[in-house]
Write a structure and sequence with these properties.
By secondary structure, the protein is an alpha/beta fold. It has two domains: 19-258, Aspartate Aminotransferase, domain 2, CATH 3.40.640.10; 260-361, Aspartate Aminotransferase, domain 1. The chain contains nine helices and 16 strands. The protein has helices at residues 17-25, 45-62, 76-88, 102-111, 228-233, 243-258, 261-281, 310-319, 344-361, and strands at 6-7, 68-74, 94-98, 116-121, 124-126, 129-131, 147-149, 152-153, 158-159, 171-174, 191-195, 205-211, 286-287, 299-304, 322-323, 334-337. The chain is globular. The chain starts with 5 loop residues before the first strand and ends with a helix.
Length: 362
């Protein structure tokens, strides 16, 4: 019997098995066209129909209001670190950034190239564990061009339990690692953007959901590839888009709809996270250094009591079919990324392995 393999990589992450099988079956002949979808013109009628369906499926899943545009762009999440200030501000403006980890810090560093940026809040420690600031601790400038934050940080494993209220200031969210994991009130945001390689599809694609009143104000020096107005005008096809990634994203959207949408996905994601955190909390051999109120449901970092055992843990877990559990170099230890495509059985297999490892080496 072939050993089951579960991929806990933080990104590019695993895709649903059924989506991969469908893509495999359609690789050489898509919809009877006699060619692969990756070989087709993005302006052909079949491809444009597929692209339109993908957008509509995403709109359905997220209940995106009609006054928001959905863009499928190049550059992943990092591309939008520059795209946001170039489309939403002028050089004399200021913007607020809520820092929660490495990705929000990366967005801040890029934003500072284009305008004055102010830190609106930072994590702190509660009983030695990382905690995110509450709404009451945020210092938001009512005249800011926008307020930026990252709802879920993959490296530190922290997640906001609330959507910050910035008043009339447009809220911009980097949802690369949490989009489509649970229902969301899109109307609370000015812009939502996400690199695809965690919960949407393969790397290279980014999805941007932007309120219409924030479109058409790009700076003159904005590269055309980052101009939201041009992207809207040309239906995300100002130049050749990442066609195969867009196709795979569309398959993922249909998979989500067939599995009950985001309400059902949220239930599964909560069950997966609870299973793993419950085991860690019940063990003296493993620990998680994030406050209970802001633990990520997508990325679970954990440390062993003796870090000299890290290499042995990684060696044996990989041999057991549990892939990519090494923590980010900044925080060390282990990290299990359990995005939408990870089944509950994968998390249970990890917990079983961790229990067995503790018995042998604890």
């Amino acid at each position: 019997m072939t050993q089951a393999v579960f991929n806990f990589c933080a990104g590019p992450a695993m895709l649903p098995a059924s989506v991969m099988k469908q893509a495999q079956a359609e690789m050489l002949d898509w919809q009877g066209q006699g060619v692969s979808v990756m070989e087709m013109s993005h302006r052909s009628k079949p491809y444009m129909q597929m692209a339109a369906e993908a957008e509509q499926d995403l709109r359905d899943l997220m209940a995106i209001p009609s006054n928001y545009k959905v863009l499928f762009l190049h550059g992943g999440g990092r591309g939008q670190f520059a795209g946001i200030p170039l489309n939403l501000s002028r050089s004399a403006d200021s913007a607020d950034y809520l820092l929660s980890g490495q990705w929000s810090r990366g967005a801040l560093a890029e934003g500072e190239k284009y305008l004055h940026c102010k830190v609106a809040g930072e994590p702190n420690l509660i009983d030695g564990k990382v905690a995110l600031p509450p709404q009451s601790a945020l210092n938001i400038n009512p005249d800011a061009a926008y307020f930026h934050y990252c709802p879920n940080e993959t490296i530190e494993g922290v997640e906001f339990s609330y959507i910050p209220d910035a008043g009339h200031v447009p809220v911009v969210a980097d949802m690369s690692s949490t989009i489509l994991s649970q229902p969301l009130d899109v109307s609370r945001f000015g812009v939502i953007y996400a690199g695809a390689q965690k919960n949407i599809g393969p790397s290279g694609l980014s999805v941007v959901i932007v309120r219409e009143d924030l479109i058409g104000n790009a700076r003159q020096e904005t590269p055309s590839i980052l101009d939201y107005g041009l992207a809207v005008k040309h239906d995300s096809m100002y130049n050749t888009p990442p066609t195969y990634a867009w196709y795979l994203a569309g398959l993922v959207f249909k998979w989500l709809k067939s599995n009950g949408g985001l309400t059902e996905m949220a239930k599964v994601n909560r069950a997966k996270a609870d299973t793993l955190y419950r085991f860690i909390d019940g063990s003296d051999f493993y620990r998680n250094n994030v406050d209970d109120n802001c633990r990520s449901k997508m990325n679970v970092p954990f440390q062993l009591a003796d870090d000299n055992l890290d290499s042995k843990f990684l060696e044996l877990s990989d041999a057991a079919g549990l892939k990519a559990l090494k923590g980010h170099r900044i925080v060390g230890g282990m990290r299990a990324s359990i995005y939408n495509a990870m089944p509950l059985s994968g998390v249970q297999a990890l917990v079983d392995f961790m229990a067995d490892f503790e018995k042998k080496f604890g």
